[in-house]
Amino acid sequence: MTTSRPLRTAALAALPAAALAAVHCAPVVSTFGPLRNRTMPRLSGRGRADHVALTFDDGPDPLSTPFFLRLLDRRGVRATFFLLGSEAHRSPGVVREIAAAGHEIGVHGWRHRPLLLRGPRATYDDFARARDTVADITGTPPTLFRPPYGVMSTAAHVSARRLGLTPVLWTCWGEDWTARATPQSVHRTVTADLDGGGTILLHDSDCTSAPGAWRSALGALPRILDTCAERGYEVGPIRDHGWPGLATAPDVHPAGAGAPGSSGR
């Protein structure tokens, strides 16, 4: 009896922490693509049925990103680039090239680290730093956000809302980050799940991928665009995806204003 009472006390004391952890991690269910695509169309990047949103993650990269920009320019296509704040800070000239070419810019966080390992304050600071860095370079605050690895947390949802950022994932990807990826495999993987209103995820940088993996995405891109045209889909950025209110940046808190408390750092 005397032994079990301390155990019960310890278990009861652990309940609030366990409950908070469960709440923090609950949005991770959106990582499961088939479930997300069926039940969370906005988060999945679902748009108008005759349009496909083309998106790129992990840039900018001064070596690889210009190749994508030149190809897209030749094809007359605009896309959405989700930039890492740390990479944007390192290569501001490439960020300006992306913006000058008419592409849409969102943020992918400051560094490519899992959000489940961050508390509310650290999450907010990461998003704010990335958002403000891109805004300083381009003169326009971004309004879109994509979490690293596509994994959201409750703190991420709250921070994005406070900063005027809309989270957007994807409906199909090319698995172009692996060393075994080829242009053929990327095209095949993307188009297997491609339909009208969908959002494509590719990578214009290998900073979190196998070295040189971006070449597979670049090699697949012309065939992906051709397939979209054959199926009657217009290809463009998320801002043209038929979502009201995304064309204009909303009023947002200045960095640091309205930030959540520091208890989760």
UniProtKB/TrEMBL annotation:
<protein>
    <submittedName>
        <fullName>Polysaccharide deacetylase family protein</fullName>
    </submittedName>
</protein>
<dbReference type="GO" id="GO:0016810">
    <property type="term" value="F:hydrolase activity, acting on carbon-nitrogen (but not peptide) bonds"/>
</dbReference>
<feature type="domain" description="NodB homology">
    <location>
        <begin position="50"/>
        <end position="236"/>
    </location>
</feature>
<dbReference type="InterPro" id="IPR011330">
    <property type="entry name" value="Glyco_hydro/deAcase_b/a-brl"/>
</dbReference>
<dbReference type="Pfam" id="PF01522">
    <property type="entry name" value="Polysacc_deac_1"/>
</dbReference>
<keyword id="KW-0732">Signal</keyword>
<feature type="signal peptide">
    <location>
        <begin position="1"/>
        <end position="21"/>
    </location>
</feature>
<dbReference type="InterPro" id="IPR002509">
    <property type="entry name" value="NODB_dom"/>
</dbReference>
<dbReference type="InterPro" id="IPR050248">
    <property type="entry name" value="Polysacc_deacetylase_ArnD"/>
</dbReference>
<dbReference type="GO" id="GO:0005975">
    <property type="term" value="P:carbohydrate metabolic process"/>
</dbReference>
